[in-house]
Structures are given as structure tokens and as C-alpha cells.
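User: Please fill in residues for this 466-position structure.
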């Protein structure tokens, strides 16, 4: 745990008592703050009280007595409208921040030069975060990984010299971290997502930009420049006199890092140097993973890792659960769990990585559905549609891709496996990449992915991929 000493002796309100909210309460109390905890969920309030925290309905609070409101990132800050706690705090002139802001303040107080790598992007941030953490461990470092991936940041060990914090950040978390100042910041990409919480893609992109704009002097701002939003970010960093490392997997760069065939190339001052090779690494299959690997390589090189350790670490990376995870194989059929593909852009990356796909898709749909995936339809032999989106997706696929309305994974997995076997293809793939949220049938994408794996392993003749 990281004790939050910056609010010692002060009264702090915490709203949202899930994992990160309770971790914030613990860290604030350990640092000497007077914590008042609140949640709309009565069970969470009871759990906080059982843990020894003062709980109260903040609607009745004397807001002028609070030094800050620590807000869970799941609660709206600006759109579609600010949460009532945010409005109450603003009326009283109380700052509204999140747990990563608390971390940043502690780091500046106690270990301002401790390595802090922050990663964001619409897609790929979890894989890139896990890969950087893996590479730094391979290089012999003490690594703490958390944030939007797994462990709440304040539950990690405190910053100190030689300890590397590798933190995935969503746009919601960035919005609650006004003084974000990583030593290495990575912006992978920007495409339309979470517009309901940001109002427009312009605002969403501007929030993402803050992560790389705030990189400490002497640090590294790494920006994927294969979309227009991020190219504009890189240009603005240049104009502001801030060094930026551009990354592309679509074209060579005169200065920056790019992928040529299966090689990661660094270009500077007219010189080109091969840094590593990613060909044949199953956990880094596909163009999207080439971008993830190249951004991760840029980050660890900035932190002093040499290319030999980098290459070894890339080859030993096991991949990220639920993201292009090779779940099993039966004969010539590979089963791939991409449950983390919760929007069309993420699913596009999976579809682009395979041919002869038996595609399981659907769930709680997002804006735009799967119309943007039309260029990948020729790769799909048949689709198996589940969840609330099934009828909408069927209408999009009509006359373009054979499909069935499976409704559930329990029906889709055996049917897709049967059809893939019967097709007699050299390399068939049963791919779960829903292009949807999971919340119609599952509590989260992780549970959906776990269920897919259970159903695959229950099929006769399936063996692990080694």
C-alpha cells in the first residue's frame, strides 16, 4: 500500500467504494487523513463501515470542511452530466481528483525521480502495459503494475529509487489526475469510444493527450502516429518544444520507431537501427500487437534496457488474458479468446490477424455496431451471434457473411467448432471477439472470456497451445 501523506490531518470525501475506492480510503487513512466514505450502493457502504471507515450520505455533508473529493473513475465527472457529488464539491470549491492523482502527489513528495510509465489509448493499452512490465522484470527491475489493469494503484508498493511503476490509464482516470507527470508516457491511438462520458471525440482525444503532454522534463513521450488524432498530438508536442518519439506500423519514419516486415526499426538523424524482431511470436500476432510491441520497446529503451534483453523479453511474453489469447487447438482449428475486444475498432485488430475465421460476436452493442468492419467480412467463413446485438449484427451481415443466431456462448462455441472442423481448412480459427460490451450476459469481459475458455476445453480433442 502507498500511504497518502499529502492529506495528513485533513478531511477527505471518497465516493465510490469498489476496489480502487476502498484502496483510496485505506491509503488516505494510513497517511493520516480523516476519511468520510460514501457510495450509492448500501452493501459497499456496509463493507466500508465494517473496515472501520466513517460513512455518511454526502448529500448532507458540510462540503466546506473537505480538502478534496476522491472520485472513483466509474462515476461521471463531466458527461452526460456531472455526478451530484461533483456538483456539490464544485459549489464548495473542493477539488475533485482520483486515486492516480494521489499517487502522483506521493511520488513527487518522496521519490520524484522514481520511474513511472503511464500508458493510454483506445485500444492496446492493457497488452502494452503488461508487456512493459514483463520486459522490465526480464531486465531485473522491481516492477509494480496496476491502474486500469488489475490492481488499484494505491494498493501497490510505494515509489522509490529503482522501483518501476507501470500504470495503465483510462480516459476517466486521466480526467481525475490534473497533475499527471510520468517519466515515460505512451499514447497508442485514438478512435471513437466512451463518447457518452466525454461528450465528443474532440474532448475524449484532448483528455488522452494530457498523459503525454505532462511527461516530466527529460522523460519520453511516445505517440503512435497512425491515426490523425495522434499525429496532431505529436505535432503539438513538437511545437511546444517537448521531445516526442513517434511510432508507426504503417510506414517508415525519418525519426522515430517503426515496423518493417517483422523488424522494429529505430530511425534518427538519417541512421536506421534494427532493435528487435517480432516475427513468429504468437502472443504478439497482428499489426495492432506490432504497435504495442514497438511502443513498449521505445519505453524500455528510454529506461535503459538493452536490445538483447528486449528481444529475449519479447519472445518470452505470454500475452494478455482475454486479448488474442490462444485458448486451445483441435487439429487445424485454433481457438482464440479476444473477449477484451469490446468495440469494433478492437475487433478489427483481431479480424485483421487471421483468415478463415469462425467468428463469435455480440453482446451489449456500442455506437456504430459492426458496420466499420465490412472490409474484414471476406475473412469470415461464418458468424455466430450472441446477446442483445445479435439481430442488429445479423442485419449488417445479411448477404455478406453466413451467420446463425446462437444467442449464447454455450450454443456458439460447439457450433463454431463443428463448422470449423467440417470446413477442412489448413488454418481455421474460432474467434471470440464480440465488438460489444459484456453486460447483457456477463458482469465483465473477463468472466465472458473465462466462460469461452471453459467451453473450448470441454470439447473433445482440444489441447493447449504451447
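Assistant: Residues filled in for all 466 positions:
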Amino acid at each position: 500500500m502507498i500511504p497518502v501523506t499529502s492529506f495528513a490531518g485533513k478531511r477527505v470525501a471518497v465516493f465510490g467504494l469498489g476496489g480502487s475506492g476502498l484502496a483510496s480510503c485505506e491509503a488516505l487513512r494510513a497517511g493520516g487523513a480523516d476519511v468520510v466514505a460514501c457510495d450509492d450502493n448500501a452493501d459497499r457502504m456496509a463493507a466500508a463501515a465494517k473496515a472501520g471507515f466513517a460513512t455518511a450520505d454526502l448529500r448532507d455533508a458540510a462540503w466546506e470542511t473537505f480538502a478534496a473529493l476522491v472520485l472513483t473513475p466509474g462515476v461521471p465527472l463531466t458527461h452526460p452530466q456531472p455526478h451530484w457529488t461533483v456538483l456539490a464539491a464544485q459549489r464548495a470549491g473542493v477539488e475533485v481528483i482520483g486515486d492516480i492523482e494521489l499517487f502522483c502527489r506521493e511520488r513527487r513528495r518522496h521519490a520524484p525521480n522514481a520511474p513511472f510509465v503511464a500508458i493510454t489509448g483506445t485500444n492496446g493499452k492493457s497488452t502494452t502495459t503488461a508487456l512493459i512490465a514483463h520486459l522490465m522484470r526480464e531486465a531485473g527491475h522491481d516492477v509494480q503494475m496496476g491502474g486500469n489493469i488489475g490492481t488499484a494503484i494505491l494498493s501497490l508498493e510505494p515509489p522509490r529509487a529503482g522501483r518501476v511503476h507501470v500504470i495503465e490509464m483510462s480516459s476517466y482516470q486521466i480526467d481525475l489526475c490534473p497533475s499527471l507527470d510520468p517519466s515515460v508516457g505512451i499514447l497508442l491511438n485514438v478512435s471513437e469510444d466512451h463518447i457518452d462520458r466525454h461528450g465528443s471525440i474532440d474532448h475524449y482525444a484532448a483528455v488522452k493527450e494530457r498523459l503525454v503532454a505532462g511527461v516530466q522534463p527529460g522523460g519520453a513521450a511516445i505517440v503512435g502516429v497512425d491515426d490523425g488524432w495522434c499525429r496532431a498530438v505529436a505535432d503539438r508536442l513538437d511545437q511546444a518544444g517537448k521531445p516526442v518519439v513517434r511510432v508507426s506500423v504503417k510506414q517508415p519514419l525519418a525519426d522515430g520507431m517503426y515496423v518493417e516486415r517483422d523488424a522494429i526499426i529505430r530511425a534518427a538523424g538519417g541512421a536506421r537501427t534494427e532493435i528487435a524482431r517480432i516475427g513468429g511470436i504468437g502472443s504478439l500476432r497482428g499489426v495492432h500487437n506490432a504497435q504495442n510491441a514497438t511502443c513498449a520497446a521505445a519505453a524500455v529503451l528510454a529506461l535503459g534496457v538493452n536490445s538483447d534483453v528486449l528481444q529475449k523479453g519479447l519472445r518470452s511474453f505470454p500475452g494478455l488474458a482475454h486479448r488474442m489469447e490462444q485458448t486451445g487447438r483441435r487439429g487445424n482449428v485454433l481457438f482464440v479468446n479476444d473477449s477484451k475486444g469490446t468495440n469494433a475498432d478492437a475487433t478489427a485488430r483481431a479480424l485483421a490477424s487471421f483468415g478463415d475465421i469462425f467468428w463469435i460476436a455480440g453482446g451489449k452493442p456500442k455506437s456504430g455496431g459492426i458496420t466499420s468492419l465490412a472490409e474484414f467480412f471476406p475473412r469470415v467463413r461464418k458468424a455466430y451471434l450472441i446477446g442483445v446485438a445479435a439481430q442488429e449484427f445479423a442485419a449488417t451481415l445479411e448477404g455478406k457473411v453466413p451467420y446463425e443466431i446462437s444467442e449464447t456462448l454455450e450454443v456458439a462455441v460447439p457450433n463454431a467448432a463443428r463448422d470449423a472442423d467440417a470446413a477442412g481448412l489448413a488454418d481455421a480459427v474460432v474467434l471470440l471477439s464480440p465488438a460489444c460490451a459484456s453486460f447483457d450476459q456477463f458482469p465483465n469481459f473477463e468472466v465472458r472470456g473465462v466462460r469461452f475458455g471453459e467451453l473450448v476445453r470441454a470439447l473433445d480433442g482440444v489441447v493447449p497451445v504451447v
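For context: Residues 287-302 form the longest helix (16 residues).
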